[in-house]
Design brief:
Blueprint (H helix, E strand, L loop, with lengths): L6 H23 L8 H6 L4 E7 L3 H12 L4 E5 L6 H4 L22 H10 L5 H12 L4 E3 L2 E10 L2 E10 L5 E11 L32 E8 L3 H9 L4 H8 L4 E2 L3 E4 L1 H4 L9 E12 L2 E9 L7 H25 L7 E2 L22 H5 L7 E5 L4 E2 L9 E2 L6 E4 L11 E3 L8 H7 L2 H17 L10 H15 L6
Parallel strand pairs: 1-2, 1-6, 2-3, 6-17
Antiparallel strand pairs: 4-5, 5-6, 7-11, 7-12, 8-9, 9-10, 10-11, 13-16, 14-15
C-alpha cells in the first residue's frame, strides 16, 4: 500500500525525529545507557517498524520470526523477485553439518528442525524445503522485487543512526519506511553497500593482489534416474578406506543418504567455459532416483549485478548436458541419469562484507575463543573455496568450537544496523568457517530473541551482566546454549 501523509502525520513524524535526535545527543554526553521506547517509534508514522529485514535468506527470516513472535512490528523487503534466497531459489539442498572436534553436534535452535528432517529423510526434495521455509516465514510480511533508492541517516557523535530508507517496487511505486533496527540479509549487501562502511578484505589478501576477489559461486545440479544403491555399493566394495581414496580421491564417502568426494573423477572433466569448474561432489539422495549435487563452481559472479547473475546461470545450464554425459560414463549409478530441471538462482558463498563492531579473526577460531556476548557457536572447518586465480581453494584446518559475538553482527559506525548470514563480520580466514548456514542461522535467531526481550535497551548498550541473564533465558526457554 502507498503511505499517504496528512499534516498531522507529518507533524508526528517530525516530533518523533526530534525525540530521536535528542536521545542520541544524550548518548554522547552521558555514560548512562540510552533507553528508546519501541512504542514511541512505532507511533511516529504508519510506515514505522521495529525491525526491517532486507532480503529473504533463511537467517534473516528466523530473526524476523522470533522478533515478530515477541510482539515487534517486522517486515521483510526482498530485492530478489521471489523469496527464499540460497536455500529455496538456489536449491542449496546439501546441508553442511557443524560439529566440534569431539564429534558433538553444534547445530541449535530452529534450524535444527531443518537438519533433523534432512537427516531423517523427510526434508529432501524441493517441496519439502519449501514447506519448511513457508512454515518459519508464516505471518511475516514479505515484499519482493524492491530496489533501495536512498537512505537517510543521522549523526550520533562518532556513529550514525539509519532513520529511513526509500525504495520502489516493480510497478514503480515509491515508499519511505522507518525502523528502530535494520538487518542486512542479502547475499550482495543491498543495504550496507549504501552506508559508506569499510569493506573487510577478502580472498585477494591470501595471494596479495589488489583487486577484490571472491570464492566461486555454485550452481546446483539436479538429476533423476540415478541408481544410488549402485553408487553406494561401488564405494563400499572398494574398501578399505585407503583404496577408496586411491581410486576416487580424498574425502570420498557414501552412505544411504549422502555422498562426498570423487575428486579423482571430477578432475578429469574439462568445462567448455574457463569460468566453470567441476570440483569434488557433495550429493544428496533425494529418494526415488533423484539426486542433487553441489559441485559446479562459477568464478567471478557479481551477485549485485543481475546481468552477471543471469550470465552465470546461463553458462551453468549450457554446461549441464556435458556434465551429465561425463557422469554417465565415469560415476557408478549414473549410467541412465537424466537432468531434472534447473534452479532459478545460485548459491553465492562470498561477496563484499563490511566491518562490524568486532571482526572475527583466524586466531579467535583456532584458540576456541568465547565471548561475553556470544550469539552463536561455530566449529566448521575453515573452507575457502576456489577463485579464478586460485581454482583449488584452501583448507586451513578445523577449529574445535568457538563463539560468535553479537558485535560481529552489528555494523561498525552505526547504532541500529545489523547483519545476518554471509554478511557476518569475519576476516577472510575466519569467514571460511563462520559463513556456514547453521552457524549464522543460530546467530540470527538469537538476535531476534534478544530484540524481542530487550525492547527497552539498545543492543549496543547491552553489557556482560545483561548477557549472563540473556544466556540464562536462552538456555531455559529456547534450549540454546552459548557458552562452553
Amino acid at each position: 500500500m502507498k503511505f499517504r501523509f496528512t499534516r498531522m502525520r507529518q507533524a508526528s513524524i517530525l516530533a518523533g525525529l526530534l525525540i530521536t535526535i535528542f536521545l542520541l545527543s544524550l548518548r554522547g554526553t552521558s555514560s548512562a545507557p540510552v533507553t528508546v521506547h519501541t512504542k514511541a517509534l512505532n507511533d511516529a508514522a504508519p510506515g514505522s517498524y521495529d525491525v526491517v529485514v532486507i532480503g529473504s535468506e533463511i537467517q534473516g527470516v528466523l530473526l524476523a520470526k522470533e522478533a515478530s513472535s515477541l510482539g515487534l512490528k517486522v517486515i521483510i523487503l526482498d530485492p530478489r523477485d521471489k523469496p527464499g534466497g540460497e536455500l529455496i531459489q538456489g536449491q542449496m539442498f546439501f546441508l553442511d553439518d557443524v560439529n566440534d572436534n569431539h564429534r558433538h553436534n553444534l547445530v541449535q535452535g530452529e534450524i535444527k528442525n531443518l537438519f533433523k528432517g534432512y537427516k531423517a529423510g523427510t526434508i529432501r526434495k524441493e517441496a519439502d524445503f519449501q514447506r519448511y521455509y513457508n512454515k518459519v516465514s508464516a505471518n511475516i510480511p514479505i515484499r519482493s522485487g524492491i530496489v533501495i533508492d536512498s537512505v537517510n541517516t543521522l549523526p550520533a557523535r562518532n556513529e550514525q543512526s539509519l532513520q529511513s530508507i526509500t525504495y520502489h517496487t516493480k510497478d514503480g511505486a515509491s515508499f519511505t519506511i522507518r525502523s528502530k533496527y535494520w538487518v542486512e540479509n542479502t547475499d550482495f549487501n543491498a543495504l550496507t553497500a549504501k552506508l559508506g562502511c569499510k569493506r573487510i578484505p577478502g580472498m585477494e589478501t591470501l595471494y596479495k593482489v589488489k583487486e577484490p576477489n571472491y570464492m566461486a559461486a555454485t550452481y546446483m545440479l539436479k538429476f533423476r534416474n540415478v541408481n544410488w544403491r549402485k553408487l553406494h555399493k561401488a564405494v563400499r566394495d572398494s574398501y578399505p578406506l585407503t583404496n577408496v581414496r586411491q581410486k576416487y580421491g580424498s574425502n570420498t564417502y557414501v552412505d544411504n543418504h549422502f555422498a562426498t568426494g570423487f575428486s579423482y573423477i571430477t578432475r578429469n572433466y574439462q568445462a567448455r567455459d574457463k569460468m566453470l569448474r567441476l570440483r569434488g561432489l557433495n550429493a544428496t539422495n533425494q529418494k526415488d532416483g533423484h539426486v542433487i549435487i553441489n559441485g559446479l563452481l562459477i568464478y567471478d559472479v557479481n551477485p549485485s549485478d543481475p546481468v552477471s547473475v543471469q550470465s552465470a546461470i546461463t553458462k551453468a545450464q549450457q554446461e549441464a548436458p556435458d556434465i551429465l554425459a561425463f557422469l554417465r560414463k565415469n560415476l557408478p549409478g549414473f549410467d541412465h541419469a537424466e537432468l531434472n530441471g534447473f534452479p532459478e538462482y545460485l548459491y553465492v558463498r562470498d561477496y563484499d562484507r563490511y566491518e562490524t563492531k568486532y571482526v572475527l579473526d583466524y586466531a579467535d577460531l583456532m584458540e576456541s575463543r568465547m565471548f561475553w556476548d556470544n550469539v552463536s557457536i561455530g566449529g566448521y572447518a575453515i573452507d575457502l573455496q576456489g577463485t579464478r586465480l586460485m581454482p583449488q581453494g584452501i583448507d586451513l584446518g578445523k577449529p574445535d568450537r568457538y563463539g560468535l559475538p553479537l558485535r560481529s553482527f552489528e555494523l561498525k559506525d552505526y547504532t541500529n544496523v545489523l547483519v545476518a548470514g554471509k554478511s557476518v563480520g569475519a576476516a577472510i580466514k575466519a569467514y571460511g568457517s563462520a559463513r556456514i548456514m547453521p552457524t549464522t542461522a543460530l546467530a540470527a535467531q538469537t538476535i531476534g530473541i534478544i530484540l524481542g526481550h530487550e525492547k527497552n535497551k539498545l543492543l549496543m548498550n547491552l553489557n556482560a551482566d545483561d548477557f549472563k541473564r540473556i544466556h540464562s533465558y536462552l538456555e531455559k526457554d529456547y534450549g540454546i546454549v552459548l557458552q562452553r
